[in-house]
Specification:
With 233 residues, the protein is α/β, with parallel strands linked by helices. The strands form 2 sheets. It has a 6-stranded mixed beta sheet, with helices on both faces. A 4-stranded antiparallel beta sheet has the order 2-1-4-5, covered by helices on one side. Helix 3 crosses helix 4. Bound molecules: adenosine-5'-diphosphate and magnesium ion.
Length: 233
């Protein structure tokens, strides 16, 4: 008998309020959903709908006002800062809109950085970094610094860095927000390709309908609530 898959991410009655001076902003109202392993799940919505807040909650980057997030059986919303840091290093990868590369490090060094935090020796991590940079087409840019690369090239380094540890989940918040259409397609195909290869789960935050096309599921937020949840096959 085929074993029934269980959810990788479980979100239960999640609420997030921000206090800004006299005002309380309810960024997430009462969010519940599950994500299955291997899904490319797009969190879609207009600016201010709560997408980044939700991503930050899923990745344990901020604590909720109420409700909880579980990844596997780990209650990420209740871990200590220290345990969270270890958890993120072990299981999560991140891709940012503004790439967030270290300006004083080369493409090779940036890509290898997550392996350093895992205690892997220099020779082994540089070998892995070289290999993954080759798969993203940057074998001729290994020793270039971020300022010496185009936006698309920098984001390819960002992708290589996110996937080098083969994380269970990769979070991407507007990963193509600063890129042109052609580069956007290249970058999204790369993310999708890695996810398929290693059966990874992707949480993709975007306000661009074109990016939602790459997802297997689209959860639409409006004003901190889920207004639709569509699975494709
Ligand atoms: P999105 O990513 O969909 O554009 P956000 O999740 O960033 O939306 O924001 C959702 C709402 O929460 C917005 O109204 C925003 O102004 C508010 N918000 C986000 N972060 C903070 C914060 N640190 N302090 C106060 N309000 C915030
Ligand atoms: Mg945002």
């Amino acid at each position: 008998m085929e074993k029934k898959k269980s959810p990788l991410i479980r979100v239960r009655n999640l609420r997030k309020e921000y206090v800004a001076g006299e005002d309380v902003v309810v960024a997430l109202r009462d969010i519940s959903f599950d994500v299955m392993p291997g899904e490319i799940c797009c969190i879609f919505g207009t600016s201010g709908s709560g997408k980044s807040t939700l991503l930050n909650q899923l990745a344990g980057l901020e604590s909720p006002t109420s409700g909880e997030v579980l990844i596997g059986n780990i209650p990420v919303s209740r871990l200590s800062e220290n345990d969270l840091a270890i958890f993120r290093q072990r299981y999560l990868g991140f891709i940012f809109q503004s790439y967030n590369l270290m300006s004083t490090m080369t493409a090779l060094e940036n890509t290898a950085l997550p392996l350093m935090f895992k205690g892997i020796d220099k020779k082994t991590r540089e070998k892995s970094a070289r290999a993954i940079l080759k798969t993203v087409g940057l074998e001729h840019r290994l020793n270039h610094y971020p300022s010496q690369m185009s936006g698309g090239q920098q984001q390819r380094v960002g992708i290589a860095r996110a996937f080098i540890t083969k994380p269970k989940i990769v979070f991407a918040d507007e990963p193509t927000g600063n890129l042109d259409t052609k580069t956007t397609i290249e970058v999204m195909e790369m993310i999708k390709g890695f996810a398929h290869k290693y059966n990874q789960t992707i949480i993709l935050v975007t306000h661009e309908p074109e990016l939602a096309e790459y997802a297997t599921r689209v959860i639409t937020l409006a004003d901190g609530e889920i207004i639709s949840d569509i699975k494709k096959d």
